[in-house]
Design brief:
single chain, 83 residues, alpha+beta, GIY-YIG endonuclease, 3-stranded antiparallel beta sheet, 3 helices, 3 strands, 28% strand, globular
Length: 83
C-alpha cells in the first residue's frame, strides 16, 4: 500500500502533499530538513493520510488532492473529523 499524505507547517500553515511507503518515516525526514521545499517551513505535522493500492493510483490521487477541488475536499474531510 502507498500512503498519500498531507502535512502542515507549524510555522506558516502551508501544506505539502506527497506519497510514501512509510508515512511515519517520511514525516521524520521532512522534519529533519531532508526535502528542499519542506526544510524552509519546519516543523511539520500530519493532517491527512489515505492508502492507495499502487503507485499509479497514488499518483492520480495525489494530483487530485493538489488541485483546487481536491484541497476543498480535504478541508471538508478535516472539518468533518473535528466536529
Amino acid at each position: 500500500m502507498i500512503t498519500i499524505y498531507i502535512i502542515e507547517s507549524l510555522r506558516d500553515n502551508s501544506w505539502y502533499t506527497g506519497m510514501s511507503l512509510n508515512v511515519v518515516n517520511r514525516l521524520k525526514e521532512h522534519n529533519a530538513g531532508k526535502s528542499r521545499y519542506t526544510k524552509g517551513h519546519l516543523p511539520w505535522k500530519l493532517i491527512f493520510s489515505e492508502n492507495q493500492p499502487d503507485w499509479v493510483a497514488a499518483r492520480l490521487r495525489e494530483k487530485y488532492l493538489k488541485s483546487a477541488a481536491g484541497k476543498k475536499w480535504v478541508c471538508k474531510q478535516i472539518a468533518d473529523n473535528k466536529g
